[in-house]
Amino acid sequence: MKIFYLLLLLSFNSFATTCISNSKAFEKLSKEHGSKIDVQIKNSTNGHDVLVWLPPTIENKALSFVLFHLGNKENPEFSSQLAIFDERGKKAVYFTTNREQLPNGYIIAGYGGDCGIQIGKTVSLATQT
Predict the structure, then answer these.
(1) Residue-by-residue DSSP string for the chain
(2) How far apart are alpha carbons 66 and 55 in whole angstroms?
(3) Comparing C-alpha atoms, which of 2, 12, 33, 40 is closest to residue 111?
(4) Which of 18, 54, 76, 95 has its Cβ near the most Cβ atoms within 10 Å?
(5) Among candidates 116, 107, 125, 112, which has minimal Cα distance to 53?
(6) How far apart are CA 50 and CA 59, in angstroms?
(7) What is the C-alpha radius of gyration for the chain, rounded to an integer number of angstroms?
(8) pLDDT tens-digit map of 26-61
């Protein structure tokens, strides 16, 4: 009987504390939705101005963060989270680089809460408008 009361005190609920990311799912989502991210690179007197336009929602999930990885996607030289702002009813992020540093890297946009979806887009001078 004592064991029965002890079992009543234990919780049989469980909660996930991490999300497992699948690279195949990331690549699939990036192919499906990557075209919705518009990267504009403009030359300025001091270097390069990079403006990235993002959809406010994808698959009914709101934009929650944007990261920029400078260099190779698998082994970046530098990574930073970018501030998101509203511009003409759209979401955007902005950064600048000097002339010596080419803005070649990778943008990762996260949508949804803790276990949302992520979409990637290459940032390269080849995408210059």
Answers:
(1) -HHHHHHHHS------------HHHHHHHHHHHGGG-EEEEEE-SSEEEEEEEE-SEETTEEEEEEEEEEE-SSSEEEEEEEPPEEETTEEEEEEEEESSS---EEEEEEESSTT-EEEEEEE-GGG--
(2) 12
(3) 33
(4) 54
(5) 107
(6) 26
(7) 20
(8) 899 999 999 999 999 888 888 888 999 999 999 999
> Among 94, 121, 96, 95, which Cα is nearest to 108's?
121
Q: Which token pair is 42?
A: 């403009």
Token couple for 118: 């992520």
pLDDT band at residue 129 using 50, 70 and 90 as cut-offs: very low
Q: Is pTM beyond 0.90 here?
A: no
